[in-house]
Design goal:
This protein is of the alpha/beta class and 390 residues long. A 6-stranded parallel sheet has the order 9-8-7-10-11-12, sandwiched between helices. The chain has 2 domains: 190 residues, Rossmann fold (3-Layer(aba) Sandwich), CATH 3.40.50.2000; 188 residues, Rossmann fold.
Amino acid sequence: MDGGGSERQTLLILRHLRRDQFSPELFVLRRGGSLYSQIPSDVPVHCFADSTTPSRWHIPGLRLPGGIHRDQVAFVKSLLRERQIDVVYDRTFHMTLIAGPAARVVGVPRVSTIVSPPSHAVPQNAGRFLSLKKRQLARYYAEAAQTIAVSAPTAQDARLYYHLKPHKIITLPNPVDADSLDAAVASATAPDRDDRYTLVCVGRMTKEKGHACLIAAFGFLKREYPDFPLPRIWMVGDGPLRGSLEQQSLAIGVRDCIDFIGHVAQPAPWIAAADALCLPSTFEGFPNVMLEAMALGTPVIASNLPVVRSLGRLDPRWDRRGRDYVAIYQVNDPLHLAKKIRRLWLNATATYSRKQSAKRLARETLCPQNIVPRLEAIMLKHSPKHRQGK
């Protein structure tokens, strides 16, 4: 339960499921992580790392490929039987690779969520045996009682990548728990800041998150607009590229503008205290950090991703559809990003109008009270007990 977007969404779902209809239980590979203590107290946690059953695939001196995965599947199969689970909900393709075969063997219906465009996410994160895992995922998503994508662009990408039939996948956006965000901001000490225009960038420091483009944009600001006071950046997060990003900022002479904060359990206070949030990712499913910034009233600058462009289609009310919720720049174009940062700062009127529209979208349209009941209805629809009227 490290502090990633899917873990946060899992916590939100666990908190908001109606207890008169659901008795949720949680499977994790390992205990711990910055969010582990936030699991609701009434939710039993089943941990693969706690298993004391000897592996059937362990041969002294020989490590068979896939042995750990087969043990994980066996653990979940036993769990489904022992706990008499009615419906499985899996999130991220790593969990689908475990839940898919386990639920199929036991005969438990499964609702599966795809959180990122798989044509990007799977090749970058699947590790070895990519083609095999792709075939397995295509089978498991096709077999699911319902497959969900967190955005329309993610659904379209999944249909093409896995060759899914259109009716097999529906779109259900991530909810935004504004009340929890407000509580986190109110209970925390506000980050120290000065009078500089301050951007915050939140995310794991990996290539697809685009931190290098943001740092390069500051180089362009320094060269192209020498009379423009350089803003400040809070880089919230950690990851394998942190060292190279620090070196990049030193090389182009903007290191004194960038604070590498590291990983924080709850980034909401940093987002709320900033003048704007930058999302420089090269791909996203439905970025939670963008939604959280919108809910907190912090303006957003985001790369021109399909999911960002799709925000205007989320609200069915005619007076809000098509709104320009975030400032958009071309993906991997640091000069364009530099111009957007400057314009966002200088054009306060347009920025205020945009952030107010975004705040309403996040807090009203995407609130848990609107989104979680739709997920509940999907799971109940496929529950054998519910179909039998029990």
